[in-house]
Design goal:
Elements lengths: L1 E4 L5 E3 L2 H9 L8 H7 L20 H9 L23 H17 L6 H5 L3 E3 L3 E3 L4 H23 L14 H4 L1
Antiparallel strand pairs: 1-4, 2-3
Helix pairs in contact: 1-2
């Protein structure tokens, strides 16, 4: 049985290219903990991380353009991989900070770099629902109800074969009233 989502944050498992770029960054006081953990090679628990309020990167013109697109949703098939809770992952706050850092760097350098080049080979880790185990009493009750239903269907299917079972008491009007 599927339950609620424990941690609704989306994480990015950085590619080697992004990982090496982050390790080259100099220390900054405002550096988010995800970037700092990769830079300093520290393992943190990603389930304890909190998402701060982030500004939207889309302006009204972008939203209007997206609404005019005629997108056809395609089902995404993925192979489920379990990612350990202590893996080095980036959340959206880390990516916003990294994007601002790259934009600031591009103002003073001739060779431009872009965030999408780094995250192209990265793996996106979507939140998962918690699996709630079924109640054993409920499972037993469901099994008995299924057996009763199958037994009833079998009796109705074979009642015209044997004259003793020709009519069930449930089929009579007196039983129903």
């Amino acid at each position: 049985m599927i339950g609620y989502i424990k941690n609704a944050m989306i994480f990015i498992k950085p590619s080697r290219k992004l990982d090496s770029f982050i390790k080259q960054l100099e220390f900054d006081q405002n550096m988010p903990e995800g970037i700092n953990s990769i830079r300093a090679n520290i393992i943190i628990n990603n389930n304890d991380r909190n998402q701060t309020n982030l500004r939207y990167l889309l302006n009204d013109e972008d939203k209007e353009f997206i609404s005019q697109l005629k997108l056809i949703a395609k089902p995404v098939t993925t192979t489920e991989k379990k990612v350990s809770e202590s893996a080095k992952l980036l959340n959206l706050e880390d990516l916003y900070w990294l994007n601002n850092k790259i934009e600031y760097r591009n103002k003073s350098h001739e060779d431009k770099i872009y965030l999408h080049d780094f995250i192209m080979e990265s793996e996106i880790i979507l939140p998962e629902n918690i699996q709630i185990p079924r109640n054993l009493e409920l499972e037993k009750r469901c099994q008995t109800l299924r057996a009763q239903q199958q037994n009833y269907e079998y009796k109705t299917m074979t009642k015209n074969v044997d004259c003793v079972r020709k009519k069930h008491p449930e089929d009579t009007i007196s039983y129903q009233s």
